[in-house]
Design a protein that fits this description.
This protein has nine helices and eight strands. By secondary structure, it is α+β, with helices and mostly antiparallel strands. β3 (50-54) and β4 form a beta hairpin.
Length: 228
């Protein structure tokens, strides 16, 4: 069993980070998630040496250099390479609140809440997706979400015929599942959280309800997806 702080650290490094020989790094454009990661590290590992910076792409990062921290993190996963990640047994055997925080943190990094308008039918298309190079990881997430009564779709290849994209996708559809995900998992990433709210509200925003329909369209337009 692990704490919520440790669960989030493992999830974040598994998503947008890595453990190297002499350092731990976490990359993100979202200050909320970077701050959460830094705070969790401080709570669990104390005042370890830290550096903040920005990649040439504009993506921010936080880096920690501490041998004991690296050794401890590798007890949970020997490799944080995206093809080999999975949910460690210490997380799987933890209480529900810890599982929730792990799943939320991983979705904050690798998940996407999407609301699209079919221009021909004027109908909303909605889904929450989670992408990973690790089929095992997504299979474990699928089982955990089922424990929260959230039904997911079949795991599929992101680009079935691609020679370079080997990732898989787990998707969630359906109003009841969106509401349960919002209530029991959610997002801390502000844009993703706002998009999930719009997804749920869009069920009452059909083209027949023109006022609400246009309101959702306007709010959605403001949620521009940044290039990460």
């Amino acid at each position: 069993m692990v704490s919520e702080n440790v669960a989030r650290i493992i999830a974040k490094i598994s998503g947008d980070g890595n453990v190297y020989k002499n350092q731990v790094m976490y990359f993100n454009t979202c200050d909320v998630l970077l701050d959460e990661f830094e705070n969790d590290i401080r709570i669990v590992f104390g005042n370890v040496p830290m550096t903040k910076g920005r990649m040439s792409s504009g993506t921010k990062y936080v880096r920690f250099n501490d041998k004991k921290m690296i050794e401890k993190l590798k007890e949970y996963l020997s490799s944080y390479n995206s093809f080999y990640i999975f949910i460690p047994k210490e997380v799987l055997n933890s209480e529900e609140n810890v599982l929730k925080e792990y799943i939320r943190a991983f979705y904050d990094d690798e998940g996407c809440a999407s609301l699209r308008l079919n221009q021909r039918t004027r109908e909303w298309k909605r889904n929450i997706t989670l992408a990973s190079n690790s089929f095992k990881m997504l299979s474990q997430v699928k089982i955990i979400l089922k424990k929260f009564n959230i039904t997911t779709n079949t795991i599929i290849r992101n680009r079935a015929n691609s020679d370079y994209d080997k990732s898989f996708v787990l998707s969630i559809t359906g109003k009841d599942n969106f509401i349960l995900f919002h209530k029991k998992i959610g997002f801390k990433h502000p844009r993703k959280a706002s998009m999930l709210d719009l997804i749920i509200r869009s069920y009452g925003a059909t083209s027949k309800n023109q006022l609400e329909f246009n309101k959702i369209k306007k709010e959605k337009k403001k949620l521009v997806v940044p290039k990460i």
